[in-house]
């Protein structure tokens, strides 16, 4: 359905997606700052802007600062249960007994995790999954740096411009965001990680972890890095 959408103070022709689909579909979902969600057929990153191919056949170009997430609109056809608990001995919060992660930027990850009261092993696992510890990593969706922050998320925590590539600044913003997600979802780690990958609004829209394959695979990777191989059949 075509409609006019107000973006950055002007009206543009777009395709509305007021309810996220619950069936397999091709393309991507674009989560905009402010809560709007668009379904698009494809996109191309051009510097600090993204050009989207709309299902109507039109084009929509937006600044990355208007975009919270771009998520593959691929529903997990056969819903594989997710793990619910971290491996024994690994807590969500920070503890003085936690070792410094034996990874690149281990000291910095530890100090940042301590500052925001999160387990440094958890932060190291997220960095590993997001960028493989490459501070210059840039995804095709515009996510950048160690914790693969979208510019809109980085700006939310005061990190703008080239500072997003600075390991300390990137980690600080990303870990602050994870801390915020921990508080928002009352320490529910799968929801925290789903929010990090697909946006907190998506988690709330689905009242839990969304069925997107990309998001659920991201959660499984984090748990695997934390030493969890088994799944809890009670979580779908």
Observed structural traits:
32% helix, globular, 2 domains, disordered N terminus, SH3 type barrels, disordered C terminus, 7 helices, 8 strands, 236 residues, Lysozyme, three-stranded antiparallel sheet, alpha+beta
Please, could you describe this protein's structure?
There is one protein chain. This protein has helices spanning 106-115, 120-131, 151-156, 167-184, 189-198, 200-206, 213-225, and strands spanning 2-7, 10-15, 28-32, 37-40, 42-46, 49-53, 59-63, 67-72. The chain has 236 residues and is α+β, with helices and mostly antiparallel strands. Strands 4-3-8 form a three-stranded antiparallel β-sheet. A three-stranded antiparallel β-sheet has the order 5-6-7, with no helix packed on it. Strands 1-2 form a two-stranded antiparallel sheet. A hairpin with a 2-residue loop joins strand 5 and strand 6. Mean pLDDT is 83; it is low at 1-25 and 230-236.
Named CATH topology of the largest domain = Lysozyme
Distance between the termini: 31 Å
Order of helices and strands: EEEEEEEEHHHHHHH
Tell me the fraction of residues in β-strands, as a range.
15-25%
Would you count the extended β strands for me?
Answer: 8
What is the CATH C level class of the largest domain, in words?
Mainly Alpha
Named at the architecture level, the CATH assignment of the largest domain is Orthogonal Bundle
Count of runs of 4 or more consecutive helical residues: 7
Structural class: alpha+beta
Compute the gyration radius: what is it?
A: 18 Å
Question: Going across the major beta sheet, what is the strand order?
Answer: 4-3-8
Q: List low-confidence stretches.
A: 1-25, 230-236
The portion of residues assigned to helices is 25-40%
Mean pLDDT: 83
Tally of individual domains: 2
How does the major sheet shape up?
Answer: 3 strands, antiparallel
């Amino acid at each position: 359905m075509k409609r006019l959408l107000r973006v950055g103070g002007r009206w543009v022709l777009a395709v509305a997606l007021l309810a996220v689909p619950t069936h397999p579909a091709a393309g991507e979902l674009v989560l905009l700052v402010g809560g709007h969600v668009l379904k698009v057929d494809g996109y191309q990153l051009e510097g600090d802007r993204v050009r989207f191919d709309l299902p109507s056949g039109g084009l929509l170009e937006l600044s990355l600062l208007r975009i919270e997430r771009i998520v593959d609109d691929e529903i997990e056809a056969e819903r594989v249960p997710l793990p619910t608990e971290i491996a024994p001995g690994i807590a969500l919060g920070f503890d003085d007994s936690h070792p410094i992660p034996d990874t690149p930027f281990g000291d910095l990850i530890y100090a940042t995790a301590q500052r925001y009261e999160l387990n440094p092993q958890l932060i190291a696992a997220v960095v590993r999954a997001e960028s493989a510890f490459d501070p210059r990593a840039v995804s095709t969706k515009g996510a950048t740096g160690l914790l693969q922050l979208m510019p809109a998320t980085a700006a939310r925590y005061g990190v703008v411009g080239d500072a997003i590539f600075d390991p300390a600044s990137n980690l600080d913003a990303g870990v602050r965001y994870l801390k915020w997600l921990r508080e928002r979802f009352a320490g529910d780690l799968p929801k925290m990680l789903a929010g990090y990958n697909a946006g907190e609004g998506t988690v709330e829209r689905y009242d839990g972890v969304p069925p997107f394959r990309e998001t659920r695979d991201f959660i499984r990777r984090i748990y695997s890095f934390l030493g969890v191989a088994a799944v809890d059949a009670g979580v779908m």
